[in-house]
Request: fold
Amino acid sequence: MAEYIAPIQRLIEEFRRLPGVGAKTAARYAFATLELTDEQTARFADAITAIKRDVHRCPICFSLSVSCEMCEICASEDRDTSVICVVEDAKDVMVMERVRGYKGVYHVLGGALSPIDNITAQDLTFAELVDRVKSTEVREVIIATNPTPGGDTTAAYLARILEPYEVRVSRLAYGIPVGGDIEYADEVTLSRAMEGRRFF
Amino acid sequence: MAEYIAPIQRLIEEFRRLPGVGAKTAARYAFATLELTDEQTARFADAITAIKRDVHRCPICFSLSVSCEMCEICASEDRDTSVICVVEDAKDVMVMERVRGYKGVYHVLGGALSPIDNITAQDLTFAELVDRVKSTEVREVIIATNPTPGGDTTAAYLARILEPYEVRVSRLAYGIPVGGDIEYADEVTLSRAMEGRRFF
Reply:
């Protein structure tokens, strides 16, 4: 049902690709875009193009990086590379970085194990994590997967595959609401969860 | 506080221009954009650019048009140009068009009178509406401004400036929405529904 003129309808359909955006919200966004100045829409369009062009994966931790080389955290000399915090997604790195106290590095799995969605160990960066543990001096791996069934399975799997190595494996304490998402946790909760981490 | 790498932060700030989008929603949208394919982001960026380039105002009714000339409704031979429905915004035209029965034309004011926001009669297309009423054969003007203080003021003002001309001026009925429940209707709506009651 094309209710709007073509250029508006087209933009509405693009906005609908965004998470949680239905037809009415998308229409609201499209009309708001129409109210922007030419310069503002040019900047908006360019920012969308730039995000694909300028964002890369760090070859070490798989977090997001502005260059094709190491990310800022892996490249930093102030970080303790003997502690690796394992997260599901790259955005979780940015969330964890708000916890000022943490000085270790990260490892982004690229998701959580999920038989329903057909995500198996091969789809995630477990092998690369094991390589890091084997080839560099790692004292501790802190598992910061989400407190969801998928995150729990992933944490248990990680604890098992890291067992043969001389490394302490811990997981963030509950403090993050069960069934929630790390992305939405506040800094204090995250910081408490960090302090109270339990060793396997 | 730049928590994310620059290209992501930049897109987050662009998304925050959209109505009702805060920092967290904008971040969610930015990460979702990152997951799109190159082709999809190119189409998204292009749709934003296109909306400013391809959408114009109809010189007669000020509704949106894909050309610099008359909009589809004003150009159509099937529309009754002697009935003008006056709305606040261009998007209201599209909403009214869902009412299948209406065969008249439109006039977009470009907002409602609002002393607080400094919107006076000069900022809206009242003069152009009066010109249309004077120069063409208009039988009826249906005021479809919103049932808000601003819309009410605008409707009253319109009724007064159209008084000197041979034209019937009406306004959309207020009442309980179809499918609604009297129990949940507010007092003002109920009182208006009472006033506008129809006799069998």
Strands of chain B lie at 56-57, 64-65, 80-87, 104-108, 140-143, 168-171. The mean pLDDT of chain B is 87. Chain B has two domains: 6-54, 76-199. Residues 6-54 of chain B form a domain with the Helicase, Ruva Protein; domain 3 fold (CATH 1.10.8.420).
